[in-house]
Design goal:
This protein is mainly alpha-helical. 83% of the residues lie in helices and 0% in strands.
């Protein structure tokens, strides 16, 4: 049995990582949106503050899942240092995510009524940046 050319193997690996990253992103979206709804409904938090808490909750869960399932080769890095790098790298993605969310709930009536739509749009806007930052910086395999 012959091995796949290195380019195809690397592309295949990256596609698998992106697929796992996307599935974990969907899980993160569910955590984010559920936490947002819970904080706004049960604790009467405003949608801006609630989103900060819901994002941090989802980001921590996503870091743990990506560490274990998406970027396993980098799982031996010091967890606290890696989590801090993860939050830092995803901070830019969060800025894209949050600004999309805030603009929509501020200026689009349906998003103001259903903030989860803003969460979805923000999540999609930030996904490509976050994948690249995670693959090439946070979870980069040790040389």
């Amino acid at each position: 049995m012959s091995e796949a050319p290195p380019e195809r193997g690397a592309a295949h690996q990256a596609a698998g990582e992106f697929a796992r990253f996307a599935v974990i992103g969907v899980i993160g979206f569910i955590v984010d949106a559920s936490t947002l709804k819970l904080l706004m409904t049960l604790f009467d938090m405003d949608p801006y503050s609630a989103r900060l808490v819901s994002f941090l909750t989802a980001a921590t869960g996503n870091w743990m899942l990506n560490r274990r399932f998406t970027f396993r080769q980098a799982g031996d890095h010091a967890p606290l240092k890696q989590w801090l790098k993860y939050l830092g790298a995803n901070g830019i993605g969060f800025a894209v995510n949050y600004s999309t969310y805030a603009a929509l709930i501020t200026y689009v009536a349906v998003a103001k009524t259903h903030p989860v739509l803003g969460v979805a749009a923000g999540s999609i806007a930030a996904m490509s940046f976050n994948f690249a930052a995670n693959k090439f910086w946070v979870f980069r395999a040790r040389s």
